[in-house]
Structure formats: structure tokens, C-alpha cells
Amino acid sequence: MREGDNKEPAHPWPRAQLQALDRVMALAEFSLDGRLLHANANYLQLMRLTREQALGRQHRSFCTERLLRSPKYQAAWDLLCAGGAYSGVVERLRSDGSSCWLEATYSPVLDEQGQVSHILKIATDITERRAREKAQQEHLYLLSLVANASDTAVIISDSHSQILHVNGGFTRMFGWADEEVMGKMPISLLAPQLSADRTQLYQSELRAGRSVGREEIVVGKNGQRYWAKIISNPIANPDGSWRYTVSMLTDITRSKMHETLQHRVLEAMARERPLVDVLELVCQEVERIAPEISAMILGVDEKGLIHPLAGPSLPNSYSQLLDGLAIGPKAGSCGTAIWRNATVMVDDIATDPLWSDYKDLVLPLGYRACWSSPIRNSQGKPVGTFAFYYLAPRTPTSLAFHQQLADACTHLCALALEREHARVRIRQLAFYDGLTGLPNRSLLQAKADQAMASAARNDEQLAVLFIDLDRFKQVNDSLGHTAGDDLLCIVAKRLQQVLRSSDIAGRLSGDEFVAVLPQCDADQVAGTIERLQELLSQPMTVADTALGISASIGIAMFPADGRDMETLLQRADMAMYQAKSQGRGRFSFFSSEMNRLAQERLALETALRKALQQGSLHLHYQPQIELSSGRLYGVEALARWSHPELGEISPARFIPLAEECGLIADLGRWALSEACRQLSQWHAQGLVIPAVSVNLSPSSFHNLDLPRMIADTLQRNELKPQNLTLELTESILLDTNPSTMKTINEVHAHGVRLSMDDFGTGYSSLSYLRRLPVSELKLDRSFVADLEHDEAARALSRAILGIGQSLHLTVVAEGVETPAQNLMLREQGYPVAQGYLFARPLAPDALVQWLREQQMESPSLAPAAQPSVRSDEEARGASQRIVQNQ
């Protein structure tokens, strides 16, 4: 920090201004004793620190030892604390010890009493700029020491424009030694093409004491050409008369060629001129700069065949003869250049073996030589070639000039070709599926509309097929998404093999395909589907695994089932679900019954939304019993829906519906809030219910605000975190949403218990289970149901209990309905169970009555060892025994 620079009075920064600065500047706030209180992302990135490393770090740790030893540092900090301000260029140390240079402003921030509360630092990184400036100064210094070794040609001439001296750069550029050019005039030597009028104009400017700058094509001793930037400065006698001229010539051939070519060519591309027009313009510009050249541009396709794209000076008949020729090791200059991906120079077409099969095409046109340079894309792959044809043999002196011209041209041609490929690619992305290459929804819609319009005019039928692959998710889950993508590509190819040329196939998303079959009745559709299913069933190898696959297909017919694509697609989709419900590899035509079922589902979805909005859902609660003592472990909250018109609607019906229509997260939030409210009410009534379990779907954990919402709910109902258990389904193990694990861990950090529901039936993974902070597993009821008559079920039950015990988890058995099941679970060592044997899910009032009845039967009934809102003494006094030796 350059202490003392530009002192300014302290002033508060408006919030809006700070927000704007935060986006573009590095901001940091320091306490008066120098501790870093806050730093924005720009500052942390600049200093190469994480937020944890930065906060609390002393300002002195960012400063160099030289600055810290200086008394100015402490004086400057004291002035900041007193309300002064600093700004200037400062050197600071990053976390890795490297230096950075900043334009920094330190401003004191005042509190409401006008006292300095902390110091705000606003900085801009100028490290690279300072390095460049330093390097430039050093470069200029070195140039002043080695002027004679410079590549810039320097000429000193007298007032008669006769050369007195040239430097080494002149000799290297043009080939003449000092003594060879003494007494000669620079313009006539280097630019003989210049007119006498222009020569006189330059000399008049120099006599007037003014510098002259220009750009010219100049020629060397051996005929080599350069595009040079020439600056001539007059040196005057003491009396002001013209005495000497110092002229500096810089080779700008490459940049000038790029500038001259790019100006017109890039302008043409900016105006969206066709590719052929742009490439013709490149050739014309080349021939204007180098009249001895006839230029030609060719492209190459994926099959290795060349196609002329531009060649304004060459006969069109010659271009036609080249079109479709294959590249190869002896395919003339152009075909060989693409084959080698390297420049090919042929000085004598008549004798060079590369042209032996093609010389008769070009020699009659009078061309003797051909130089071809490959045009490469951004990956370095040749996509074409730029050729220079010569009527006379090439001279060695023109080689460098033409090389620079070719470099500039191939760059521009590559840019134009990449732009054209990008336009084609954009169209491909806009209208075609990126994976399979089939038309996407937009193009499918357009083509289908045309087909239906034709069918309507000709009074013909048309079929729309909605195709959904069976068990595709299992391929993704078991073999990976790459294998799934490979499978989709194979299916797309087999679908195209079955369809006629007039048929239309497209991919909607995932594993869903659509086919539109014009001029096709029901019998023809059935035949097409049979051929498709037969082709799909043939073995295919994906990820080194042999697979056979089938598809469920729904069919809607135009015009019977609809007269527009949207309706037909919707009804074909409904028919597909009907087919899938009947088994795999089936197909089904749309019917009015399917439409009725769809309307019923829509009505049920609407009713569910209304029920959530109006609070007409309710919860029942099923007790969970500690088997060793018979005490109440907790209750599980289960949603119930009684509709005034539809009656009791099963959770097995409305919960999957909530998942499908996006209401499951709202349902979970409602259940969580209602369960906590009810538990709080029970506690207020003196009932000892240790905890309530609430089921949440994986999508609920996508909400990063869920931990805060849970904490607010618990606080509002005067509950502790241990009074709540959240039950997760095993499908959460496959949830790839980045928010899921973060939210789960934050909920766990608040002290809320997590339980894995239905364990053992889905996608159980011990590696995932180890990462999840669950404290409870729930053995799925299917294992409990088979305990009495299936040894495998008993073995799996013991294994799951062992997993839970090894991970220090409580294992809860669900669906206990018989005393025999209860006895087996107790013998295996299960700590907790729930099921109809103990109690069905009960309404809140019915649960209270059940508890009272159990207490009357067993006055010593106590809750399980989970914390509740009551004290330990109250819990012991209200202990109850629910089930003893069942």
C-alpha cells in the first residue's frame, strides 16, 4: 500500500453502489485492529484464499516485509482509524506467497454515531498491466542498446535523398550491404513503382520539417517483397534547414495481409453472405495483392472427396472435373495436401509424380506450378485446401511472401468454413435430436402437420405411433447412461429400417419415440409394429452385454382419434400407457375408454390440488412399539383423503398421482406441519408420545430451504428436533440433484432423525447408506409377511438387522400382523415394530383413546427411550406398557 496517496474524507457507501462494486471489484472489510471481516468472491479469488482461510486474517499478513518495516504503514493505518482515506497502487502478497499489484482505495466506514466502525477496501488487479509496462520499458531500453541489431531496417539519407548509412536490419531484410547502397535514393531502390508525384510530395513534407508515415510494398535485392510500414523523420541543421532523414522500415507483411484480407472478408461474413461469395472474395483479394497467382479453394467431405468451393480465375469446366475426386498420396497438389495435412509445393506439374494422373486436366490451361496449403479446423483436422496456380515457374524470392499470404488466407477460409459448419450445426440442434439424429419435437410437428394436411386433402388415414421402450431405466441403472445412449441410437436405426421413406420418425425425450405413418390403416399399422417388435427383439450388444428389448406402443388414427398432431400425440400416449399396463412388448389403439380414464385422472389431480389448498386432507397415526419392553417408541403419520363425492381415496392412488403431477413436495410440507402441530397438541394434553415420523419424497430435499422450514415448524410448535423423524425412500439413493445430499446433511445437523423406509426392496446400496446420516432402517413389510413360511425371507431379515446393528442404526419392522411374526422378530432381536397386530393407523382422537385403553391395561406403560417435550421425571411417571410378551 502506498500510504499517504490521495487522502480523501471518509464517507459512507450507498448499498446500491456497494452492490454494483461487488460485481466488478475486489472488496474487503477490515476491523480497526486489522482483522479481515468480510471479503467478496473477487477478493478471495484475487488473493487465492478460501473464505475459511480469509476470515480473521490480519491485514499485515497481506503486506510485504519492506512495507511492514516502514513507519509509514502504522501511520497510514492510524489515519484510517481516525477517519482518513488512502488510494493508490499497492503491492500485496497472495496466500501462495506471490505478489500482486492493486489499484486500491481504503475508506473508513462510520457508524450511526459518526465513529469509524471498520475499513472498506476496494481494489482492482493491475498485476498483468504492471508486468507489461515493466517488460515494455526493459524492451525499449534493450532496443536502445542494440539498435544496430534490430530487425527494423534503418536508413539515414541526406537532404538530396541519397543514402548515407543503413543498419544491420536493413541488410538482413533487403540483402544489400552498406557499401552497395551508398549514394542511391531509397524510394527508387526499394519502391520503383512509386510515381514521381508521390516522391515529390514526401520530400516536400520532409523539407517542411514534418514526419512522413506510409505503408508500401517494397522489393529487396533478390526480388523478395515485403509490406513495410515506413516512418521518415527529418533531422534539421541548427538553422532549421533539412539536413538528414532517418527512415525506419518495419515488415508488416503478415499483419497487413490479414488486415487487407480480413476487412472485406469479415465484413462479408458479418453481413451473412453465402459461403461461396465469401470464398470468392478471398480469392479475388489474393489475386489483387499478387497478380501472378490464380487462387482456388476446395473443401473435403467425410468420405474424403474434394469439392471446389471458389476459383474465380479458373475455368468452370476445370472445377467440374475436380468435383468428387478422392484425396490420396498421389492426388495432385490439393488432394495430397489434404491427405498429408501439410503444404504441398509442385514447381513442375508436367513432371511431378503427384500430378501424373491429373496433369492433363490443368496443363492445357497453361498452368505450370501449383502450391496447395491445407485448411484446418479448430481441432487441426483438414477440411479443405487453398491452392495457388502459377502460369510461370515460382521464384524462390516470392516464397516467403506467398507463404504469408497463404497463412492469412487459410486462416480466413477456416473461419468461414467453421462458420458455415456452425450454421449447419445450429440447424441440426434446432430441428434434430442431438443423440439419435432423428427429428426433434419441432421438426416432427412441422412434418406431421404437412402429412395431415395431405391426408385431409386426399381423404386418407394416417397413424401416429407413441413408442416407449420397456425396462430402459434398468439399462441406465445397471450399465450406465452411456450404454443407455448407445441403446437409444440402435433403436433409432432399427426404427428407421422398418419405416417407409414416406414415414416420419422422431424422438421426443428419454426413451420415447414417435412415428407418423401416412396412407396407413389399422391393419398396415399392426404389420409395421410387428416388424418393429421383431427387429427390436433381435440381440444387440451394448457395453459388452447382449440385450434384447421390447417397446410398448400406442396408436392414434387420423382423423378418427383427432385432426391435429397435439391431440393425436396425446391420445397415442394414453394408448401406450394402456399397452404398458397389459405387459411388455404390447401395442394398443386409442379408445374412448382410455380417454375416460384420462379424464378421471385429470379430475382427481384437480381435486387433489384443491384438497391441499383447502386443507381437507388429514393424518392418521400408527404406533411403533419397542419389542423388548412393549413401550411406545413413536407414531408414524400417514396421509388420508376423504372426498365428499369420491369417498375414501387410497394413498396407493393419490400419492403416486402427487408424484406424477408435481404435488408431492407440497403434500410433504403439509404432512410435516400438521404432524408437528398434532404432536404439540398431544404434549399439551399430557400425552407422552416421544416422536412422530413423517414420510418425505426425494424431491422435497431439492429445496435448500427445507432445513430452515423444519426448524421454524419445530420452534413454532415448541418441539425438539428429536421429536421428529423424517422417513426417506430408497429411491433417494439414485437422486442426482446436487441439493439433495446438502439438504439431508443440514437437516441431520439440526438434530432431526432420519429413517430409511422400505429398506431392502429397491436400489439399496451399502456405500450410499454409509454416506447417508440415517439413524433408523425400516424393514419392508414384504419380508415380514413371508417370515412364517419362507426361510429366505428370514435370512434376509436377519441380514438387514445385522446391517443396521453394524451401522449402529435402529431397525423397525413394518407390517407385523400375527403373533408368530412378532415372536420371530423378537427372537431375531428386532428392537421396534409396527403393524395391525398392535394397532391400525388411527385418527388423532382414536389414538388418544387407544393410548388410554392401553394404559388402563398396563398402568406401567412407558414411552421408548427417545427424548420428548416432558422431563425425564414426568416421562417415568407416565410410563405405559402397551404390548407384553405378544
Q: Can you give a write-up of this model?
A:
The chain is an alpha+beta fold and 886 residues long. Helices cover 43% and strands 23% of the residues. The strands form six sheets. It has an eight-stranded mixed barrel with strand order 23-24-26-27-28-29-30-31. The protein starts with 14 loop residues before the first helix and ends in a 9-residue tail after the last helix.
Structural class: alpha+beta
Shape: flat
Number of helices: 32
Return residue spans where pLDDT drops below 50 for at least 5 consecutive residues. 1-11, 860-886
User: What is the residue-mean pLDDT, rounded to a whole number?
Assistant: 85
Q: What's the story with the biggest beta sheet?
A: 8 strands, mixed, barrel
What strand order characterises the main sheet? 23-24-26-27-28-29-30-31
Tally the beta strands.
31
